[in-house]
Amino acid sequence: MKKRTLLIAAAFAALSCLYGCSSQKAPAAPETTAAKTEAAKEEETTAEKPADDGKVYELRSSTNQAQTGTIGQALDFFCKTVEEKSGGRIKTTANYGSELGSQSEQVEMCQAGALELVLAAPGTGPGVWVPELQMYEFPFLFDSNDQYRTITRSMEDEVNKRLAPHGFYTYGTMSMGSRDMLTVTPVTKLEDMKGLKMRGPNAVYISMFEALGASGTTMDWNEVYTAIQTKVMDGMEASPSMINSMKFQDNAKNLALTNHCMACIQFYFNDSWFKSLPEDLQQVIKDSVDETEAFQDKLDDDDNAKALEQMKADGVTITELSDLDKWVEACAPMLDEYRAKGDNWNSFIDMIIELKK
Asked: Closest by alpha carbon to 74, among 307, 306, 300?
């Protein structure tokens, strides 16, 4: 009996061991290098996928420049690039010229949220609230267009600090080239400017015209053609590309190559709208702006050369000035006058001059 009991106990112990061993998880086979690589790739791909919140964002944009000009073409390029890069998550519309009113009205629409983006000149756009932005169009301050592009783009963070209380966010700057004087009567020397009524976009230009012996008046870009045609104005100034895009040479046949200043158009987004975008779409906007800048740089350089040839073909007399040093000297006192306007002007001027070094 005792022997039988021992045999049963041994059998039970064997069964228990068998059950316990079979319930333990077998050690996993080592993962191969190839498997690890594929897993890592899959994890990276997942991490790189944009966070799609399922929302489609509207980007309504406008510029007071002609659709055929380099800024108009750049806006069209930007909108197409944004839609492509966002995979349709941002839908764009664009307006040109005076379709939505004057430049100041378009800028106010952007501030109010009726537009998400306006392409505008700093001085005559947000310069209403941050007047020192007019320094970007100061006469004889910048040495070249390349220098101008570098400085204006490198100062965007500073501009954003000054714009923040006014509801704008800027990212992206496009130069419109060196500017010259288009007049009804010939201007071959400084003295020829005396008494001319000239159109300028903001107060800096008015100060410049006064320093040069002329008188200046501000008016919207889209009113200039009629003003020269009706002899309300004796002339205006802009880059050859800008002049030709509006065909102002129809009414004035003399162009003096003064290269007195450069001007730019910046991207001004409604600040609340831009910050409402998911981070990946904010980056889409920035990447699209970067590509648009490069597109417009080449386009504008090429177009200014072509515009000069077109203006010659349209009967415009083009004059290279031999007394340009007198023009520079006449405008030199303006810098002290603008420094005297306040610390906001002074600090902005100092930044530009420091970046020129």
From this structure: 300
Give the tens place of pLDDT for each residue, 244-257: 999 999 999 999 99
> Could you write out the three-class secondary structure of 235-288?
EEEECHHHHHHHCHHHCCCEEEECCCCEEEEEEEEEHHHHHHCCHHHHHHHHHH
Q: What span, in angstroms and rounded, lies between the C-alpha atoms of 168 and 111?
A: 7
Q: With H, G, I as helix, E, B as strand and everything else as coil, classify residue 189.
A: coil
pTM of the prediction? 0.81
Q: How many CA atoms lie within 13 A of 117 on its CB side?
A: 29
- C-alpha dihedral, 218 to 221 to 223 to 224, nearest 10°: 80
H/E/C letters for each residue in 51-72? CCCCCCEEEEEEECCCCCCHHH
Phi and psi of 22, rounded to 5°?
Answer: -70, -20
